[in-house]
Design brief:
Its main location: cytoplasm. It is found in: Cytoplasm. By secondary structure, the protein is of the alpha/beta class. It is built from 14 helices and 13 strands. The protein folds into 3 domains: 105 residues, OB fold (Dihydrolipoamide Acetyltransferase, E2P), CATH 2.40.50.140; 139 residues, Rossmann fold (3-Layer(aba) Sandwich); 99 residues, no CATH class. Strands 1-2-3-5-4 form a 5-stranded mixed β-barrel. A 5-stranded parallel sheet has the order 7-6-8-9-10, sandwiched between helices. A 3-stranded antiparallel sheet has the order 11-12-13, with helices on one face. α4 runs parallel beside α8 and α5 runs parallel beside α6. The relative contact order is 0.06.
Amino acid sequence: MPDKAADTTAEQPWPVRVLSLKISDYVDRMSQLWVEGQVVQFNPRGGTAFLTLRDPDVDMSLSVSVPMNAVNAMPIPLAQGARVVLQAKPTFWTKRGTLQLEARQIRPVGIGDLLARVEILKRTLAAEGVFDAGRKRPIPFLPHRVGLITGRNSAAEKDVVENARRRWPAVVFEIREVAVQGTSAVTEVVEALRELDAMPMVDVIVIARGGGALEELLPFSNEAMIRAVAQARTPVISAIGHDVDQPLLDLVADWRASTPTDAGKRVVPDAAHERALVDSARDRVRRSVVRRVEAERSGLRSLVSRPVMADPVALVRARRQEVAALRARATTRMEARLHRAADQAEHLRRQVVALSPQSTLERGYAVVQHRDGRIVMDQDDVGAGELLRVRVARGDFAVRPVTAGAEDPAPKAPAARAGARGTGAGRTTTATKAGSTGSSKAASPRKPRRPSTSRPEDVVDAANTADEPTS
């Protein structure tokens, strides 16, 4: 048989007796200890009392056996719901497989001790920020559904419901009746709170309980309940006891009611008061509208009674005449300015015409140019036989300068006139001296004169074959 639990297999398991004995051996090696809890059940049997010790914060309990001598030695009688501290030794019963505590001493937890523990818990939660005002949520003005956690058939339930419905008859409650004192109070209240908090139609939750002794109100200072309220997403109203009672639930709740009746008045608005406010606001609005209408009507009468309203177009008529006069004056000035501008333009046109090169040409002058377009300014710039271009008032023609001599025939006037009028390749061009071409000279006086061997026909042919300028 395996010696250790880790060595057991499906082929070599431990019998139940072996496991029970090993558990008993392990538990027997535990030393005595002090444990605190709440007495749930108490059954004295002869010289031994059997009770169930429960944790006040969670749903866990252990069976305890204690001698009656130790119970009778307590300063106050032991009863259900009492908070006790006992010295015990854990034992394991192998036949039934149960664990229990064998107590040697039992002591009650005094009110002073409980208050001291509540004060320590209060400081701890305050340091964590559980009671901070910044985390508190506002109570809705008119909740669709109110969650109510209260005792079974309690006066606190009637106070909350009746006062709320007296103020707002249409209010709807979601009621959870739980134990509000005793060993199961914390567990039932926390479960009901979480259930109502998970319902989306519940807008606010009221935890209500009537007055009672300090020990009876201790569940509402329990850490598990305080943390459950702090984690709820729905606003919570605390209505525990009277105004002088102040459990820790009042500090963590989003709003504290002094009594359950006060909670019923706070959870919903007063319908009569709200109706009176609406009526008052409606009267104020009506009076304000009447005053505004009367003021506007008075102002309208004042405007209609003015002289200008008797003849509304009088102002328009006067302004129309002014506009017409200004328009006529502007037209007259614009026409005068246009006439002056036309006269100035005509004067400038005549000056331009008088000073234009074309007018000079029409007076009988001519412009003589080289083949490259340069104007002949000096007779020394003209060579004998050079083809020149002569521009007159109507057209142009080509000429070749020749030297002066007795043998040179004098040009005939008709021929020269005909050459000046000719255009194109078929016109006749005569050779003239540079002095007869206006401002140009035929040849340089420094060059020796020699008889010209060219004939008028050759000059004409050369002019015809040269690049002819266009008129």
